[in-house]
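Subject: Predicted fold for Transaldolase, 232 residues

User T.R. writes:
Posting the sequence so we have a shared reference for the thread.
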Amino acid sequence: MLILIDDANLEDVAAIWSTLPVDGVTTNPTILARQHRDPLRTLRELRELLGAGPQLHAQVVGTEPDVMVNEALALRGELGEDLFVKIPVTEAGYVAMRRLSAQGVNVTATAIHAPMQAFLAAKAGARYVAPYINRLDNLGADGVRVAAEIQTLLDVHRMDTQLLAASFKNSQQITELAKLGAGAVTAAPAVLRNLFRNATTDAAVAEQRADLESVIGAGHTFADLVGSEETS
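User M.O. replies:
I've generated the structure tokens; pasting them so everyone works from the same file.
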């Protein structure tokens, strides 16, 4: 399962990128607008930070098929042919998906709130389908269950499209989707950090360190012991 960072703050993205084995970055117009700067410049800098290979997802804002296609091609020309262009699952969006996928553009279908929206996007050529887990929960649905239904549809019909679950409120939702075999998830830095942070782990490490320091001295490590043996 790929894990992506759902953010456009360069400092926060860089911190996660240098710490965790993540696979890229997803953005949307709202995330970019929160940076209060030229969104294209932000996308360029994210591409530079990630380097070649890792995924970068950027969403069009046009609402008509021709506009969406032109916008997608412009973004691809600016940010590289491996860019994943996010297209909403609207009536116009499905038209744009079919045209873009026919031209070899990587399409991520987004703003998905129902399994059939995802299924139709897969048939339209989308590489990824992105349901909004937390938003579904807020609407009274079960976001993880909806994602599971989408995964079942993709598996049963042996489609090349993968699930890219988005919009998380906690790390447990990501764990549940990992168990389902989701192709990818994308989450904010705070949620990603909670995938590994655990107070009990920290306490165990601190206890073990204190036990050894009682023998070798505070602040020392095995490297200090090796060095002292070599000079003794």
